[in-house]
Amino acid sequence: MRHLIPLVAGAALVAGLASPAQAEPASNEWTADVSGQSATWGGSPRIGLIPLGTHRLARPANAVTAAVTGDGVVDVRGLRPDGQWTEWYEASATAPVTLPVTTSTIESRVVLRSGKASSVKVSATTAATKSGDFEAAAAGRAYRVYATREGLVGGTTANGHVIRSRDHFVALPSRRGLANKNSGNYSVQICASNGRCEWAPVWDVGPWNTKDDYWNPAATRESFKDLPQGKPEAQAAYEDGYNGGKDASGRKVANPAGIDLGDGTFWDGLKLTTNSWVTVTYLWTGSGPVGTVRTADAAGTVNVRSGATSTASQVGLAANYAQVRVTCQLTGESVSGTQGTSNIWYRIASGKHIAKAYVTGVSGATTC
After folding, report:
1. Gap between the Cα atoms of 163 and 264, Å rounded
2. pTM recorded for the entire structure
3. Contact assessment for residue 4 and residue 18, using Cβ atoms and an 8 Å cutoff
4. Parallel, antiparallel, or unpaired for β 47-70 and 117-125?
5. Tens digit of pLDDT for each residue in 98-107?
């Protein structure tokens, strides 16, 4: 985090953002000067993001308030006990937002609608937990939703990524699952009825809505709490006339889409030819070992195979930066990749395997 100004003995950066000699003591109240920082702009509706980095708390907390001087709001998230992050939650100055975990590390970002912000003040306290708080299931939440192709090559996503030809990413209709640029800590597994799957990061907000985290239960869902968990508002509007058949902005909903797919995810990963129903697993809602796909090409992908060998049939793709959940590991063909040479392969779904040589960060995987 740049330009931190401690309010009490001790604002701090988490190790990794500053050296131990430079790090300040932890605190539960801090400010950030963002007047000299530029935002990345993108998405529709257009937003600007200013990442503020992580902050170490003096005392574990689960409730956060945040005030912005100037334009915008503040998103915050907490580090889970398993080393993964919660979703992003919009914090306000008037009432604390309760995170689904008690944490010692907070990350924040400013979200601009227009104009600029000059400073941010954040405070973390404790609050009573409530029903519906996060509990990670091994497999993660999965729902069948309608997928559309995003296109928009040359445009900019909500996290500042410039869309390439045959790009590999997805959009979900909530900022709560929006990954930072060149990050995959919010990733999904999308599987089509033809048996193919792709693992891709969430880099844009949409389709239709921007505050519809439909994969969450009513207790924590930001909007449309009266809808069944797993049913996007656009689907309810299109199929059932919910909200007069309109999205939150008053537009007539023309399809039931709950996810947008980058062209490469649509055409190459899933081999789709038209908008289709797919099964989406929201991987950050799961638990267990996780790894990050790294390719030599920033726009590259890694083949997902039916077995632990490069001659096994290709059954999908995993995009650069995407996170994958590892169910177990097995010995197979030796492969050389961005992470060295290894004969270990990871099973990331039933009948779906990826070479360890292209995956970093996996810890604690058991043998298949």
Report:
1. 11
2. 0.90
3. no
4. antiparallel
5. 999 999 999 9
